[in-house]
Each structure stands twice: as C-alpha cells, then as structure tokens.
Structure of NTP pyrophosphohydrolase:
Amino acid sequence: MDDRIVYDGWLKVVQRTVNGKVYDILKDHDAVSAIIVNENNEILLVKQFRPALLETTLEIPAGTLDIKEESEIDCLLRELKEETGISFSNAKIEHVFSYKPMMGFSNSLMKVYLIRTEKERLISNVIHDEDVYEAKWVGIEEIGEKILSGEILDVKVILAYYYLKASCNV
C-alpha cells in the first residue's frame, strides 16, 4: 500500500495504490454526535446551512475531532454547547453505536451518543453559531414522516430514529 498526498488542507486527499490500482481517499477527521431525547420523546435537532448542498438541513448535533489532545467526550460537550446553547457536562452520556459514514472513499468514524434531558433545558432556540442558527425539539413520529418524505436526508438523524425505534428508547 502506497499513499501520496494530493491535497493537504483541513481535509486531506491521498492517492492510494492497492494491487496496482490507484484510489482517491479522503482522510477525514473522526466525529461525534448526540441523540438528545427529552421526557416527551422529542429529539433535539439543529437547523444549519450546509455549503456543499447549498441547503438548510435538520440534523442531530455533531462535531469533528479536529483539536489535538481533546477527548471525544470533551469534543462532544463543546459542540453541544456551541450548537444548542446547553451545557451537558453533568449529563449521563452513553455511547450507543458507531458507523463509517463514507467507507467507499474515507476512513472517518462517527460515534453516536445518547443523552436524556428535560425539555425546558432549551432556553432559546435561536443559536449564534457560525453553522447552526436554530435548535428545536421534534417529535419522533414527525421525524419518521420527514425521513419518509425526503425532507430529512441526514444519515445521523435517520440512524438515530431507527436506533430509538429498535431499542424501545422512545
């Protein structure tokens, strides 16, 4: 196996030769995300603009592990505070599953955590983050409808929905 860097920015692209064939590989950061569920079985979603899509999306809060020496949990807590305005430093945080979001061309891993909280912890749904501008509670059934209609296409939300349904956590 032979890797040659062809782009070296926040993301890295390498050309990897395997058995004589050359592949373009995205060297991406691993990431963390949280399924935040309240007592009414609503999930906290964030509304954000995605430049790659030129669209606004509804997603569960997430962030990349791009700060050296920062633990996964510290990264998660920082991202949750930035994207929802809520500090979860005293919350029970449970790792529930991991997945490889782009395994055909990337080596990144997404770890998903579950947090239970009270609805009133979201004081303001207006968020002043560079990416996220709203956080809101959405019912599990409404999320299912938005998935089926194609309004929600984010794999983190889709996996969170089916995880909660399968595990009877809602």
The helical segments are 72-84, 140-149, 155-167. The chain has a mean pLDDT of 90. DSSP finds three helices and ten strands in the chain. Strands lie at 2-8, 12-18, 21-27, 31-37, 42-50, 55-59, 62-64, 93-99, 110-116, 132-139.
